[in-house]
Amino acid sequence: MNAADFGSEKAMRIASVVASMALVATLLASGKLHADGGDSSAKVTTLMRQPLPEHPGKDGVLVMVEYAPGHVDAAHRHPGHAFVYVLEGSVEMQVEGGELHTLKPGDTFYENPKDTHGVGRNVSKTKPAKLLVFFVKDQNAPLVLAPKR
Length: 149
Known about the structure:
The chain is α+β, with helices and mostly antiparallel strands. It has a single domain (3-138), classed as Jelly Rolls. 19% of the residues lie in helices and 38% in strands. The protein has one helix at 3-30; strands at 42-51, 58-67, 81-88, 91-95, 101-103, 108-111, 117-122, 129-138. Strands 1-2-8-3-6 form a 5-stranded antiparallel beta sheet.
C-alpha cells in the first residue's frame, strides 16, 4: 500500500463515521429510534455540518446523541460511515453478524454503510449516556435509514 492509498482509505473511514452519525441524528430527531415502544428517549443535537470540498457531494456531520436511561434503538442503518465516541455512561452496540460491544467513556465504535445496526442501547436504567458521532455521507442523504430486508 502506498501513501496515496493510505490517505484515500483514511478519508473513506472518516466519511463512514460522519455518515453514520448523521443517520443516528436523523432517526433520533424524527422519533424513529425509541425506547420500549414509546416516544424517543434520545436527543440528537447537530453540532456541525460541513461540505467536504476535497470530496465533492460529501458532508461531514458531527452530532451529540443523548440516551435516556434504558433507551433502546430500533434496528437501522446509515447511508455513510459513522464513528461513535462514548462521552458518558455505558452503551451496548452491535451490527448484524458482529460481536456485541459494551462501551464506556472513551471507547469507540464504527458502523460501515453496509451494516445494519441491530443493537444500540443504554445499559443503565438510571443514568443517561452521551455519545459524540461523526458521519461522512452524501450531502442529500438522511442520517438514518430503515434496515435492508
